[in-house]
């Protein structure tokens, strides 16, 4: 099954982008080839660019605090395990404290690393990290894999609090939804959203054997899904087939 996610606001869109980048960084950093570590470093720069938003850290801290207060509202409910509640709120507290203790924006300390910043200034130029442009970086790529991995771990340490906070917030958001089986008639599906409730994320699970790609759009009033096919001309064409998939709205 292929899972597609569609954010309903810019804040969740930013969280999903960061999650995507953190997953990529984790995959690349544990590998041993210098090319993988080159792209791990460029991913660190991408994370820094996304995290440079002035209000991102504040948004994440507010969301962590909001989630904690929402969960504390379930205390005393016989259907809720107090032990699980304590564990989750404890994790939220840890994320809040770790992120709040970082000075400035996430990754700001890396901007003081002149060696990394020399790479960052060249990485956007096609071929700009060649050995004649950055001999020190070229030499670093010839270090043994363990040394490069240790350096990457040291550089990414300042980003870990943000990564853990984003992971925690998105997990709680995803867990808030209830999946429903729906059918797109003639390749089209629309659903009116209930009033008085704000949704932040749509999750769509579809069987890859169908060969269909969902184009999702939505706002606070309605959600629309159009199913497409990637044909041999390398273009997307609308499907007219009925198709079932699983839809989850998360608030």
Word description of this protein:
By secondary structure, the protein is an alpha+beta fold. The protein folds into two domains: 10-172, YacF-like, CATH 1.10.3900; 177-250, YacF-like domains (YacF-like, Sandwich), CATH 2.60.440. Helix content is 47%, strand content 19%. It contains eight helices and eight strands; from the N terminus they run βααααααααβββββββ. It has helices at 10-29, 34-51, 56-72, 82-100, 114-123, 135-140, 145-156, 160-175, and strands at 2-7, 180-184, 188-192, 201-206, 213-218, 222-230, 236-238, 243-250. A four-stranded antiparallel sheet has the order 1-4-8-2. A hairpin with a 5-residue loop joins strand 6 and strand 7 (236-238). Helix 1 crosses helix 8. The protein starts with a strand and ends with a strand. The relative contact order is 0.15. The mean pLDDT is 92.
Quick structural summary:
Helices cover 47% and strands 19% of the residues. The chain is α+β, with helices and mostly antiparallel strands and 251 residues long. The strands form two sheets. The protein has a four-stranded antiparallel sheet. Strands 3, 5, 6 and 7 form a four-stranded antiparallel sheet that branches.
């Amino acid at each position: 099954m292929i899972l597609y996610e569609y954010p309903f606001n810019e804040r969740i869109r930013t969280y999903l982008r960061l999650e995507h980048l953190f997953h990529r960084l984790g995959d690349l950093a544990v590998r041993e080839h210098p090319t993988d570590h080159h792209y791990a470093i460029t991913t660190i720069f991408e994370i820094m660019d996304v995290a440079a938003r002035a209000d991102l850290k504040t948004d994440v801290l507010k969301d962590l605090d909001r989630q904690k207060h929402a969960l504390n509202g379930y205390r005393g409910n016989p259907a809720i395990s107090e032990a699980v509640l304590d564990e989750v709120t404890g994790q939220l507290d840890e994320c809040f404290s770790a992120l709040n203790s970082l000075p400035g924006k996430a990754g700001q300390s890396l901007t003081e690393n002149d060696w990394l910043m020399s790479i960052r200034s060249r990485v956007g130029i096609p071929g700009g990290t060649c050995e004649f442009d950055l001999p020190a970086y070229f030499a670093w790529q010839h270090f043994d894999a363990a040394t490069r991995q240790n350096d990457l771990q040291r550089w990414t340490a300042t980003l870990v609090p943000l990564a853990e906070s984003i992971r925690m917030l998105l997990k709680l958001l995803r867990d808030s939804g209830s999946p429903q089986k729906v059918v797109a008639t003639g390749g089209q599906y629309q659903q009116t959203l209930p009033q008085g409730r704000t949704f932040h994320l749509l999750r769509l699970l579809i069987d890859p054997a169908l060969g269909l790609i969902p184009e999702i759009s939505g706002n606070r009033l309605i959600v629309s899904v159009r199913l497409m096919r990637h044909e041999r001309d390398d273009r997307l064409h609308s499907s007219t087939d009925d198709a079932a998939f699983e839809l989850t709205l998360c608030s």
